[in-house]
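Chapter summary example.
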Amino acid sequence: MQSKVDLIYRLLILLICCQLAACFDTPLENEWAEYPNRVHNLVKKITDTAKNRPPYSLNDNQLDFESTAIQQPESLTIPFTQALSINACNMQQYIGERNSSLGKVHSHDSRLVYELRFLRELLNCRDIEYPASQTQQQILQEIKKHKQQQWPNQLSYFLAHSKQSNAILRRHAKLLEHDNIGFAASKNYLQALFEISKTQPQAITDANIEKFERSIAQFKQNKFIARLFYTLELTQYQLTTAAESINELTNLKPCKKTHKPLEVVYLNNVLMKYYGQVLQPHLTYLQRVYKELVPLIESIWQAPAIQQQAFAARYLTTAAGSVYQDFENAVNSHTKSWQKLLAQCQMSPSVQN
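The structure predicted for these 353 residues follows.
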């Protein structure tokens, strides 16, 4: 008896852990997996030549981002004694922070904020024009020039290597469903990052920096955008698969004046019951989400070393060949395939009992 209780207890613990780890597919995930099969199986009953595409594969249909292509920015080394002799432009504060135990292990976001504050200080510092000595002026000018030149590289390195970017750019094979918290955190982070990256450093305010730091704390390592990339790939693939089956059936002209195959009626039920009630609202949500986020993504990840990658052409732009264009094309083609079939069979979208 005790062994049975122990077994039941262990099974319950396993079930709870599995639920927490999302072992089970959600109803929406199940329907996206099943929808092309529902269509194909009905088409196959009318024609034996119906082709069946292989299931969606993450490895075959999604690209990787190559972060190693973006190298760490160059550092400028100045003799410590010379650096300590400069009191202008709050140099001692920045030198002290960078050489402290914490400064030597800056996180990517802390380093970006440090470099931004330092560059802003140098660009707005009038003491560079009126230094205590010519030597100090030369050192300050050298530091200022170096920081200006390296600022785009600092941004690129952050966009490629930070924890936040890893959460966005790495593959994540989990369907994106309605997630208002994840969407808000992602949008706030992108808006704050956009302000930091697209505003001239000398015009950045403390409010801009504080907003950026708050957005990082809220964002953490949110995988909302990575899941969006995956979901757009998956859904456009599944829609294209279903459309191919429908088009194949339409080309056979299965409906005659005196005969309408029962399978076509069942297909109409699939359209309304599964696509119309379950999948179409999800597609509408995805369209709304990506149209709000992608303009920010497209503006932020503009560094040449990033844009040269196939990943960028697929996910970081809305140009032809991007996942967004393919998604819209798939939605439109899928809709047209149903319209042609129903028109050929003189039917309208409705559930037949």
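To summarize the output: The CA atoms of residues 189 and 215 lie 5 Å apart.
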